Amino acid sequence: MHLSQQFFKVNILNKHKILDKLPNNRVELHLFENIDSTNEECKRINQKKDFHVVIAEKQTMGKGRLGKSWSSPSSGNVYMSIYSKELTNNTPLSLIVGLICVSTINSMIKKNSIGLKWPNDMLFAKKKIGGILVEKEIKGKTINNIVGIGINLNHPKKEDWWGDLQKFKMHLKRDELINKIIHSYIQFCDNGISNWQEQWHAHCVHLNHEIKIKQNNKIINEGIFLGINDDGSLNLKMDNNKKTKYEYGEISIEGIY
Ligand code: BTN
């Protein structure tokens, strides 16, 4: 382990900086030192405002996509979930939130270094630095969205394919990063987002590249990634030149990191 990782000093999350210029009649912040999962905490909230934001320094049972766990030590990363009502538009929320996060980070580091891997992995230098887990909660006639965001700013026990953003000293600006993401998320919920597919393609690290499609731990197809449709599904050109599409439910892409 590198020394700077071992003795990394975490700046504790600051409520005032996180809420800076956010409408306090619409946003409720729930900050935790330690929690099972910020997504799970959303399910225990008594909803009073448009947006409840749950953030923790550490998660003991962090959840990832496809039933995986999300390693969540208290080393200054972002573990947050935004709880709000279902949107009336039909945009693929998890892809858009991935786009919001990547655009926010890139604007803060003043480089376009962070890219997207379908459907919503955040990548830096071919390593995964973040991901999104969107869950739907159905309560009678009401549907709520739980948007879980994990971004690694400093991860002490990285797997081979994990990365973090400590190179950019983003740990010093964690509150600002969270604040900007919440801001953009509210903006998107209120006003939608134009050209989102174009923007998503511009950030995608494997557009027109050879990819493998994985389902239940098995490679089920391969070909060229041609981009996404307005429902977030991907288009694949196979060896026989035929095209097919995959929805993002149970599918992932193999071989990018
Ligand atoms: C993925 O597998 O790529 C999605 C990871 C999502 C992790 C975040 S951390 C905050 C929120 N709470 C959770 O338990 N998971 C999400």
Strand pairing plus helix content: what structural class?
Answer: alpha+beta
Detail the poorly predicted runs.
Answer: 1-7
Which radius of gyration do the C-alpha atoms yield?
A: 18 Å
Bound molecules: biotin
Polypeptide structure, described:
The chain has six helices and twelve strands. The strands form two sheets. A seven-stranded mixed sheet has the order 1-2-3-7-6-5-4. The chain has a five-stranded antiparallel sheet with strand order 11-10-9-8-12, with no helix packed on it. It is an alpha+beta fold and 257 residues long. It is globular and about 55 Å long. Helix 4 packs across helix 6. The chain is 22% helix and 31% strand.
Short overview:
The chain has 257 residues and is α+β, with helices and mostly antiparallel strands. Helix content is 22%, strand content 31%.
Provide key terms for this protein.
alpha+beta; five-stranded antiparallel sheet; 12 strands; disordered N terminus; binds biotin
Topology, element by element:
Blueprint: H1 3-6, H2 15-18, E1 27-32, H3 38-42, E2 51-56, E3 78-85, H4 93-109, E4 114-117, E5 121-124, E6 127-139, E7 142-151, H5 174-191, H6 196-203, E8 210-215, E9 218-228, E10 234-237, E11 243-246, E12 251-254
Parallel strand pairs: 1-2
Antiparallel strand pairs: 2-3, 3-7, 4-5, 5-6, 6-7, 8-9, 8-12, 9-10, 10-11
Helix pairs in contact: 4-5, 4-6
Biotin binds next to α3, β3, β6 and β7.
